[in-house]
Give the backbone structure.
Amino acid sequence: MRKGFLALVLHAHLPFVRHPEYPDFLEEDWLFEAITETYLPLWQVFEGLVRDGVPFRLTMSMTPPLCAMLNDDLLRERYLIYLDRAIALSKREIDRTQSQPEINHLARIYHYRFLECREIYVDRLHCDLVGAFKRFQDLGHLEIITCAATHGFLPLMEQQPEAVRAQILIARDDYQGNFGRKPKGIWLPECAYFAGLENYLQEAELRWFSLDAHGLMFGNPRPRYAIFTPCFTAAGPAAIGRDRESSKQVWSQQEGYPGDPAYRDFYRDIGHDLDLDYLRPFLHANGARKFTGIKYYRITGRTPHKQIYVPGWAEGAADYHAGDFMNSRAKQIEHLIQATNIEPLVLSPFDAELFGHWWYEGPRFLNFFIRKAVYDQKVFQLTTPSAYLENHDTLQIIAPSPSSWGHKGFWEVWLDESNSWIYPHLHAAARRMTEAARSGLKESAENERVLRQMARELLLAQSSDWAFLMKTGTARDYAAKRTKDHILRFTRLYDQHKGGAVDEEFLFNCEWRDNIFPDLNWKYYV
């Protein structure tokens, strides 16, 4: 009897933000919030499933910038400072809200939660989250995949083949260092594909990649089974299309589960609600307001008058939505089984930070759903793309269509009037990096350091996050400054290298500041 398969893919990524030149830095909180609200809760979900003997399988990308930050001693120390501030603030909130029983109850929950995060992170995981997730892969439950080295938007590097190649091969090397094996799959940054990209993936010995549905549906020839089975590319790696039906149920701002009135409101945080003098001891040195992670209100609805968050209601909603998602997938896959002669694969990819950070109850939903999918239905089985490819023939070879999962499906999020100014500089730097790498082959080993640092600065400047933040306006000034700073440092190093007079003090400062990829192979640019 035929059955179907569901592959959940969580994309865990953050841009590389590390500022040792400051005693503390506001944007480093992006990592600390994600650890507290997403990565530690996900670890708890997986650990609980392993403890209970649940035979689950899912996929998670862990990008090189994220792994570098999770492994960085400075950021580990600063995360503990962040947690200690949260613990102290939540303790003060317990005292402040004594006369408000409903809010006091929530303050106590937050205080316990922050203490629990510290205990898990320090005592159980020894501050090693990369190793913690590696263990689930070694146990056979989790397939960890790679990404481009700094999440560069690859279609906009198409004219610099060496830059694309370096993004892929440096990421592969970094993955191997972190996880002790070669990656089998890759999350293309922003699911962005251009014709011929599969050749670079084949060189890196990557077996599969995901892309948006129209990337397969507009392929040549049209896929016989739409997006519900992988298709090989001519170069070898298989392309797997994102299922929009399942994504919409979870992801959609209007129709998705996270908008339920019972769930916690992300934006109503005491860091923006309470008196600034009261909060000041728990803020960064610049005194700017920020999210603290302590939120007392539920979504309620489209009204500024939010109601108090009730954890029990939210727990019930997560349970209900997990059951609904399971039933929806079972109906969808049962229809596919009846309408085709294949064992269909439904690929449901999401940003990992949706689960916990943006959607507080997301990890509970995921826990409920996995358990229900394993025990409460028999239509589909949880799998990973690599496992599916090992057990199923892929019948068709196609040439996918250029595409991304951004607005309107192509490049306009990362290339419009708000951010287009960065690309002439990025393209010029990529050409110069190739030139310098080729000349470096004939030079002494003393130039290794400067070539390696030039590559780091270029890679960091190429991160798709900066163009995205400029487009959305979320952190426009910071994103623009990061792009300019990396390009300026790259250009200064390039000029010094070409002139044969490298400023050792400046080079050391760049290495100290931007220390990602310690064993970077700059020869990939040749």
Notes: The CA atoms of residues 402 and 415 lie 15 Å apart. The radius of gyration is 24 Å. The mean pLDDT is 95. The longest strand covers residues 4-12.
